[in-house]
Design goal:
Jelly Rolls, mainly beta, elongated, about 210 residues
């Protein structure tokens, strides 16, 4: 016997039940902007015949299921940003660090001038909005002087009496979007405030900071 079409009322009731189920699923599933106890992998595949390249991986659990994982790869599959899942912190990129400095005062940048004189200078690309800089300073016996820092030609923190420690953290830009990646010039200046003498300064710590 041929199948007869369903009664229109039954079909409408069935459609209503399906719409209610769909509405319930949409409203009860978590949003795609939030993943709980899961992971997200972003992959690039320009053409179907190309191998899939992992672009980024974000996981709420890492080795042993106890630590989060963060990985970002370039277009060729090279890992360019990742966290250290063993101890925390960055695994890549490997950020440059200040090399050991000569602690013999006589070899430090110095001046005998009674006017502000640049004794050390560096240029660095601006990647972060704040900077921390620590200097050790010395002055020859019986003399007096001051040491200060300029960043982009503007005083960075207060001048310190020679013989003290300069340690200052502050913003180095008010417009990160415009200044990002530009060269930032850091100058160490010193002067002698006594009749004669020598003021010395040595950078021992310098790094960027977040907002």
């Amino acid at each position: 016997m041929a199948l007869l079409p369903e009664n229109i009322v039954d079909r409408l009731l069935q459609m209503e039940r399906r719409l209610n189920a769909l509405s319930t699923a949409v409203n009860t599933r978590p949003p795609l902007t939030e993943i709980t106890n899961g992971s997200l992998a972003l992959k690039r595949q320009a053409r179907p015949e190309d191998p899939v390249t992992l672009v980024a991986q974000f996981s709420t659990t890492g080795p042993g299921g106890s630590k989060p994982v963060l990985r970002v790869n370039d277009a060729y599959g090279h890992e360019i940003v990742s966290d250290d899942v063993i101890t925390g912190g960055l695994a890549r990129p490997w950020l440059p660090m200040l090399p050991p400095q000569n602690m013999a005062t006589a070899s430090w940048p110095a001046t005998t001038s009674t006017a502000w004189t640049t004794v050390a200078q560096s240029q660095n690309p601006l990647w972060q909005p704040k900077l921390r800089l620590r200097l050790l300073t010395r002055v020859s016996s019986g003399a007096a002087g001051q040491v200060r820092v300029l960043v982009g030609g503007v005083p960075f923190g207060p001048a310190v009496a020679a013989g003290g420690v300069f340690d200052h953290t502050a913003a180095v830009t008010t417009d990160m979007q415009t200044d990002f990646g530009k060269d930032l010039t850091v100058e160490v200046q010193a002067l002698v405030t006594s009749a004669s003498g020598t003021v010395y300064a040595q950078t021992v710590l310098m790094h960027g900071r977040q907002t």
